[in-house]
Amino acid sequence: MRLIIALLTNIRLFIPLLFILLYTTIASANSSPQSWLNRAIQLQIKLDISEPLGRSTFLYTHNSYNSKAYTTLGSYWDPNHQLSIRQQLDYGIRAIELDIHWTLGTRAKKEILLCHGTNKHTGCSIFDRRFEATIKEINSWLRKPAHRDQLLMIYLEDHLDGHYPEALAVLNQFIGDLIYRPNSCRQLPQTITKQTILQQAKQVILIGGNCATTAWSTTVFKDHWPTENGSFSGYPKCTTKRFSAAAVANQLIRIYEDATWLTRHFGNPPPAITPQVMHDAVSCGLGLVGAEPLVELDSRMKAAVWSWAENEPKTSSAGKHCVVQGSNGRFNAEACSSHYAYSCRNRQTNEWQVTPYTGPWSTGTARCIAAFGTHFQFDVPRSGYQNLQLLKETSGKAVWINYHDKNGQGKWLPGDYPTSLINK
């Protein structure tokens, strides 16, 4: 009996170590950066700056902290991810999840750790990463000049046992001035835009609150995103069990997978996020999709790119500083003097129209108004869903979209991008 117990104990220790080795092998095989994919994602993020949050897309990671990047002999043996949070942000992730537990740490006292555990902290290790370390990592990334026009949503899964002052102290010390705060206990409004938040010099939205205290309620928005794992119908139906296609396109809803060994073998894991699922999700305008384990060269991240054609925009394309939506729905750089029809959008109804006549890119605003009235403006699709709506109106022909790099510095921006954020 003692021998059996010893063998079982060793097996329990060996299996997590085996998966660490497998993750390391996968990571080394996928560690080379892919410049086009990363650039396309970074450019795409800026497209929905003037859209309501409910119509925006946030690439997301579930259990973002549970990564091989933080694995030690005493913690994170069964990770969801391979990349650190900084690497996830560099890759284009703009919504993350942190499970915050008030539990025993290495300082021989209770503190806030990031733990993949139960409400009673079962599964937590004293070696798990401190909340403070991750918030410092996020703070460092956000304050880089190149990132000052980036908005990050953080879902705080609350296992604090009422220790909100300790969590608030960490948040306020490092990112307090960057937090977009509710003025009372309320849910995150779906109608506010990224632009409105960023122009107030705020870069962080916190969700997962429960109205426990006044200070917590005016820092963390109540509740979190509706979750529809296993019920997303895909494109073109675009529905879930609880939500219509219109709701999916106009409200932040999430789906994600759980790639941990424990969940796959002993739990009830959500369906995998395959490249096809990712493609369908962005085509439907679904706001948050969490693929894991997230790796570089990830085919699912490539499937999330609905805008630029592969290897576009070319850095060597001299004289091509304006953009068309091609016959396949993907973006291509073109000389601004070329002649195409214009993409026009009614911002009130989200209806797209294409002008019956062509011209150079510069006359797009006037041509849209002349053709369809003042409610229509020369515009660019802000999501995969909008891109497909426009494509239906083009009759298979390339059309101008209000997207450009007129200064020739590689800063491809929608025509209404606020000048106050361009140089940040």
TrEMBL record:
Subcellular location: Membrane
Protein name as annotated: C-type lectin domain-containing protein
GO molecular function (one): phosphatidylinositol diacylglycerol-lyase activity
Species: Spartinivicinus marinus
One of the GO BP terms on file: lipid metabolic process
Gene3D superfamilies on file: Phosphatidylinositol (PI) phosphodiesterase (3.20.20.190)
Stretches assigned to coiled coil: none
Keywords: Membrane, Transmembrane, Transmembrane helix
